[in-house]
Amino acid sequence: MTAARSVLVVGESLAGTTAVRHLRALGHAGPLTLVGAEEQGAYSRPPLSKVVLKDPSADETLGLALDGLDVDVIRSPAVAADTDRRTVTTADGRRIGYDALIVATGAGARRLAAPGQRGELVLRTLEDARRLRARLADATSAIVVGAGFLGMEVASACAARGIPVTVVDTDRPLERVLGAYLSAEITARAATHGIRFLQASGFATLTGDPVRGVALPDGTELTADLVVTCAGEIPCVDWLEGTGLAGRLGVGIDHACATTVPGVFAAGDVTYLRAQGTQPDRRAPFWSNAVAQGRAAAASALGLPLPGPAHDDYFWTEVTGLSVKVVGRLPLLGEPTAVQGSVADGRALLTWNHADGTSTAVAYGLRKPVAALRALAATSSSD
Ligand SMILES: Cc1cc2nc3c(=O)[nH]c(=O)nc-3n(C[C@H](O)[C@H](O)[C@H](O)COP(=O)(O)OP(=O)(O)OC[C@H]3O[C@@H](n4cnc5c(N)ncnc54)[C@H](O)[C@@H]3O)c2cc1C
Predict the structure, then answer these.
(1) Where is the FAD/NAD(P)-binding domain positioned along the sequence (predicted)?
(2) Nearest residue by C-alpha to atom 37 in ligand 1
(3) Is residue 113 a part of any domain in this protein?
């Protein structure tokens, strides 16, 4: 017998479907309900920027199936939760009871448009990707606001179509995530593919209605056929108002994905790991983390021991056709040790040793199984 008689998972995407699969795999035989907000059901987001923008046939390959599992799927967004009565209300008026609730509502794209300003393009959903792909078909110039992994992937999609693109940010490309060393290499490589980087002294403002450009604090104004905002994400927590579960960073969890409210657990991009010791509150909105947390939340909701750590520090991206796979702590400060190849040649295996004795391993433009990267990060650590 398991602790929770009925489990409700809100959010039908990676963290939510992982939790559902693991609830059943762990032996939960009671009622299981999954509440989703997107008509087409769960799908994988990383290919949206890497494949879907280029290839319409990819749209059909993204589904995250729940085949064979006995799950009551309701496609109507949650609009309120009452954690005293243990109920969640959906937009279509249903009130669903639960013994354990798993919050997996992810995040939405951060938008920069002023109230009422039309035509801002973002990339978070399949619908966004289809809209952007249609616009890419006849664009002759593009601006991407934000030089994080998503911004650089969108810029790469523009470059792959021969569209000159300017990426604008206050920090250099991928520097916040990967550090100065790899940022410099990636920026130089991107330039050879027609991706120009413009470092701004402050935040960009979108101009035009519909949006046609950006204005920078130093007075610079740029215009293009296409302006895409890739300025981060905002946790989807509106429906949790009044529960005390959520703040600006999302839903705070501990290492077992438990929130501060009894019977409520959370996983994926909607979460942040609450401060512990010298570690501050920390968001890690990446694929592998959503999977690890989906599993952990399922076990915790059933009162079972964790199947493994509730976080995973594997991350990957692709810039101008070059894949960068990372296992370990970020950002990467200083210079790496080259274990194999060289960054200048576009194929290298690198490690960074951190002050706390841990290491990060990076496969730069090199095919390397994640397991091998994990082993390299572990053997390079000094403790
Ligand atoms: C274009 C793109 C590329 C990416 N590439 C990479 C990559 O290369 N590597 C990597 O590690 N990560 C990548 N990511 C991040 C990765 O996709 C996310 O970490 C992952 O999708 C998080 O899963 P999630 O289930 O927590 O949240 P989400 O995928 O955001 O899903 C949350 C779901 O909850 C639904 N929802 C929201 N509010 C409600 C509500 N009130 N009621 C019911 N449902 C609701 C949403 O509609 C959504 O379907 C990428 C993300 C994007 C957008």
Answers:
(1) 6-294
(2) 105
(3) no
